[in-house]
Design brief:
The structure is a single chain. The chain has 436 residues and is of the alpha+beta class. The protein folds into 3 domains: 88 residues, Beta-Lactamase, CATH 3.30.450.20; 77 residues, Orthogonal Bundle (Helix Hairpins); 164 residues, Histidine kinase-like ATPase, C-terminal domain (Heat Shock Protein 90, 2-Layer Sandwich), CATH 3.30.565.10. The chain contains 12 helices and 13 strands. Strands 1, 2, 3, 4, 5 and 6 form a 6-stranded antiparallel beta sheet that branches. The chain starts with 11 loop residues before the first helix and ends with a strand.
Length: 436
Amino acid sequence: MNPKPAETPAARPERDELDSLRVKVRTLELERSQMKLLLDQGFNNFQVTADKLGRIIENLNDRLETKNQELERNLAEMEKVKTYLANIFESLAVGVLVTDVEGHITSVNRRGVQILGLGAEQLIGQPVHELLGIAPVHGTTSGQSRADLEDPVSFVRVDRETLKLKISVSPMPGGFILNVQDVTQLIRLEETAERRNRFTAMGEMAANIAHEIRNPLGSIELFASLVRKSLPPNTEPAQLINHISSAVASMNHIISNLLAYTKPRPVNRDRMHLGHLLRDSAEFLGFLAEKHNVTVHLELKARRTQILGDEEMLKQVVHNLFLNAVQAMPDGGTLTIATRNLKLTDARQIARFQPVHGPTPAAQEVIEVSVRDTGAGMPEEIQKQVFDPFFTTKARGTGLGLAIVHNIIEAHRATIDLESAPNVGTNMILTFPVTR
């Protein structure tokens, strides 16, 4: 066995340095192993956390997707409800105006537009109390569930048609809701029913009056004519007898008018031209107009004037209106007789010319006849009574002329309207459906 060579002093530092390097290498390897272990543990922890976060995110995404789908369904349902409510709002048979707390219109449905005769863009922003002529709606307290106006309100549309409106006001959060119902036709029907009831009662009375009075009147006229034959003409007794005969004739005329009013004869509807009737009547009554210093203007612009009517009865109507117009101008003036054709598309207006139970067409062509004077005109309280029987402002009138005119016009399924104002004059407007 060979002995180890002796370590030289010069080799000892090298050995120490080599040992030191070996220690450092082992230390580095140990640190690397520890670091690798830490990295592996960190990666594993990260992977676990990432997987957990992934599952959480996936779960959140699933929940978010579910919520989004639910929200979309709710939005679609809300849109359906909104459309449904809007369709109900637009389809209501009454006009509905929605206002803010100050009473300015914020929304209006289709029926409201039809009734008021103005576009929605013209109505939005208007103070509703000024538009309808009612008390300010903000005077309605929130404690009131509904405030109905007692009497129908008169509303004049831009086309000059006057409507009767039944209005109710209901407070709501942020404003008010007004229900507007057109009761014009209903009021007309009620007035017609009331008028017919009066006709029935007056018809019975008129028949009794005619029987009880005409027989004595006939005897008076007979005896007056016998006495007249025995008297010299142009004497005072003969003149008194003539006065008696005139009074008898006047009373007979009143009785005839009363019978004509309460028991009118049936209407014989034949094709006739209103233009011809108006022109002939104006010529026939021309002497009366000249006598009262009245100038007659004919403005017969209607091209289609053929109607179904009773010419004799309508001649009575025209003569009565002409005579009233001339008498309304004792100091002279102008009588204008005008015609024009109109095409009606509003169902409410068309219904006035149709049988009560008949179908309503989509459009109705009419001829409008205007008899306008420049007389003193009438105050509103007189206008309301002018077609009532026995109402008259004339000293010697019977009050049956315009009542008979009204009956004849109604019997022709036509309409008669009155426009008048003090110191302006009066305009009687007749409207007939045109036939071909």
